[in-house]
Amino acid sequence: MTAWFDIRRIRPAAGFVLFLLTLFAYSDAGAAEPKRVMLLHSFGRDFKPWSEYAKSIRAELDRQSPWRLDITDHSLMSARSSDEDPEAPFVEYLRALFAKQPLDLIVSIGAPAAAFVQRHRQRLFANTPMVFTAVEQRRVQYSMLTANDAVVAVWINYFAALENILRVLPGTKNVTVVVGTSPIEKFWKEAIAKEAEPLSNRISFSWTDHLSFDELLKRAATLPPQSAIFWELMIVDAAGVVHEGGTPLTRLHAVAKAPIFSYDESFFGREIVGGPLLLVGDTSRQTAAVAVRILGGEKPSDIETPPVQFARPMFDWREMQRWGISESRLPPGSEIFFREPTVWEQYRKEILAICAVLLAQIALITWLIYEHRRRSRAEVLARNSISELTHLNRVATAGELSASIAHEVNQPLTGIVARVGAARRWLAAERPDLDKVRAALDQIEAAGHRASDIITNVKSMFKRDTQDRSKIDIDKLVWAVLDLVYIDLRKHHIELKTELSDQLPPIFGNRVQLQQVILNLVMNAIDAMRPVQERVLSVSTTFNGDGVHVWIADTGVGIAPSDVDKIFEPLFTTKEHGMGMGLSICRSIIESHNGRIWVSAGQERGSIFQLVLPTNVRGT
Predict the structure, then answer these.
(1) How far is residue 240's CA from residue 181's CA, in Å, rounded to a whole number?
(2) Which domains does the chain have, with CATH numbers?
(3) Taken in order 205, 207, 213, 219, is the CA torsion positive or negative?
(4) What does the pLDDT average to over 216-234?
(5) Can you give the pTM of this predicted structure?
């Protein structure tokens, strides 16, 4: 038990000691002198693509290094020409600059810087570790490397880069290779021509090393269809002008009549279409990793890294749209950048919400329309059923009434016939019985009076003045009729215009009979407007001093002038299936109310029915 407790006490103590040692180690590292690193540029700090590599390598060194770093930048100006005379003074300048504070590491960026270092390795810090980076493996003289040299090379597959053009633009016939006149550009012109030789039967190549940059821009602006531009470098043009940064490519892109391709990511993002590219980040991470290993004490010659090759193809969506490059033509595994999001991608939630609201509204409107039509059909069926029942009731009533009239009138008529026969027999006797003949005639006369009384009683049943009468608001009566015919007006697309007076005095009459008159006139107007296109029904009321005046006008076919005087006569009709009783009954009802009714032609077409009903007559 004692030993076990001792172990538990020792373990925390050992952990605490280890923590202190680590803390002291970091404190010593922080207090130590910074590692001195020089970045040697091939042409200058602002020449692409090496400027992009330099920025990325500096960022990776700061990220990966456990030590503080003192990084300085120097540029090899002599690489712009083939004259090597200025190199010696530059070597002496660097030796003098770092004589008292030697460098811990030199990183040469680009092929010209690598060549410069290898030419002057013995004079230029022979024992200082060196990393050659951002240099194509064909530009490194491996036989001249020393034990203090490490290489992070790249491999440019020009054949794959040029074949990419033919893949995405199969109709390409001409490729203009942009290259200048500096030594490195001359080297790559020969290398590209050699690698592109298998494609010479499919495309023709032209070069720009004999052109000034202004002449290059003019040629790019007049390129024929089925052309493409391959951007290699433009450091020094044929006129001896030096071009820094990304300005030359930007100016070329602004005027070019053909798509631009290249092989380095540093040119990607604005001007080139894309394809298989060397990624700056791949080289930078590998360079920083090698540099940290060397600064940590590893021998440079023992560090071997494979050349950085093309990553999977990258394409700029904006350039694809500009030159009509279909996504289906891209190599498998390609990545597309700068794609503009569609409206669906930007506002998916909003669109879904709007669609949901619209669908809900459509469903609600559809349901309302269905219910409205269902109710309208129900109303029409109800009205038809009521009309049919009313008609059958009237037919039945007329039948019963006819049978009753026939029964009542038949008895006196039968007596009359019988007594006429008896009278004839008495008159035909040898001695006519005149007294019996007189009695028979008296009986015949009495039977005739009886038949007359029966007819009079039947007629009195239909006299309008014997019906119940009361005060009537004619405007309310008109609105009640218009409510009844609302469905018919809508069914026949008839526009309704009303001009009803608000202060009409009441009239005294039978509400049902007057309602039937107005309904009959309105239905006649609807029938008259069926054959015409413009259908307007106008109803108005006024008070003219001695009675209420009602107008019912339509825009229908109208009434012939020769028929105006006969229109209210019984059995006269202008309808194909009319009975000729409607207007006759209307006139009888109006006249029974001591009013009058007449018809006239409309101003342009149609008819105007007018009626006047007195306001101070109660009837007898």
Answers:
(1) 8
(2) 33-154 (3.40.50.2300), 158-277+310-337 (3.40.50.2300), 348-462 (no CATH), 470-613 (3.30.565.10)
(3) negative
(4) 95
(5) 0.54
